[in-house]
Amino acid sequence: MSTSLYLSLAAGGRPSAFRLADLLGALSYALDMTEGQPEGHCLRCCWIGARIGEALGLPDDQLKDLYYTLLLKDLGCSSNAARICELYLADDISFKRDFKTIDGSLSSALRFVFKKTGLESGLAERIRAVVNILQNGGEISRSLIETRCHRGADIAARMRFSEAVQDGIRSLDEHWDGSGKPEGLKGDQIPLISRIALMAQVIDIFHTESGAAAAISEVEARSGAWFDPALVAAFATARADPDFWALLRSPELGPRVFSMKPALQSEPVDEDYLDDIAAAFSDVVDAKSPFTADHSNRVTLYTDMIAEEMGLGPAHRRWLRRAALLHDLGKLGVSNQVLDKPGKPDAEEWSSIRRHPAQSEAILNRADAFADIAPVAAAHHERLDGKGYPYGLKGEEICLEARILTVADVFDALSADRPYRAAMPISKALAILDADAGTAFDPACIEALKSGLARLNAEVAA
What we know:
Helices cover about 65% and strands about 0% of the residues. The protein is mostly helical. The protein folds into two domains: about 5-15 and about 270-460, Hypothetical protein af1432; about 20-270, Hypothetical protein af1432. The chain has a two-stranded antiparallel sheet with strand order 1-2. Helix 4 (about 60-70) packs across helix 9, helix 9 crosses helix 10 (about 190-210) and helix 16 (about 270-285) runs parallel beside helix 18. The protein starts with a helix and ends with a helix.
């Protein structure tokens, strides 16, 4: 039997509490991927928006709500990815990334949409998509934003954040003049932290793309339309500090953001809160595709079932459940044009898919609280014969926990609907696992899955 990563880590000890800001700042890199933004986008927005909040003289409790709204503003962004691909016949990640770099005018938005829609589709399909957008564009846009913002607010609630943070995320795309979505709120109807967060987002995107002058010009051009003029003035005050722009391109940005007062005021994250955060981010992942809805939860169930059958203790199983919940974080960086493709992926698409375990690992390694599960998440597509990915690990190089997770993940993939085939009967899924026992999969893990399923069926029938 392969060695247990958990037992080797436990022998060295593990901290009992973690800082909330550090943890969410690390996980925010996953949110950057789903929006196609350069890594650190949410972190930079947090710096920008918090400094504007300080320039406004906001009290500590409001600064704290603003701080976490900025870090988590994109919690719901994966939920409209599949719909964007369907409607615009486009790569959702590049579509969302590039759309944010146009100016705020309707004419620019329409030109962008027509330019991007259906570039790789046939002429008839592209015409149908464009006509649909022309006829229903306003409602399409409102629905996409509503889905994203409400989903993000719901996930923030699951992570125990205040109603102010939930409202801040829910109203992120409202505009000062009432032209925003989804509710068309106007002026002071829009929560202050939403107004700051949207402006911080625009500042970072244009600064990253074209520099400080472009960011300033864009914000001033939208003053009174998208943005509250009082916040535009506060931005002028904040950027007068020489550190304001310099930190955005500095490796010291993270430490500075995590040493700001709202971060230092946060309560420690205990084991129960870690479970809630892991579950919430698994929801972000599973929302990306209708074919993976609830995938992480099912994989976690099967993982725990196998682990229990193999005699792992309660603390060990709890640790492994977190790895199962977060194993597919890297899929947030894969386009839905690939994830939901009904046919076989081409070479470039397959390369994108094969990168996702390493991307999961990279994100988890940023978070002290989850760095210990990163190797398990990274190895969930490895095979005993060395023909897996991303690292081609072989035999004893694959830890016990990764072997368990692999069997659970493959079993769920086989027994659930996929874009290229219907769900298989359980008996057929198990037969496929058996056929590769000892070459791809650990036979002991397969037997544990079978005994767990049999016990579950007996309990259900009782």
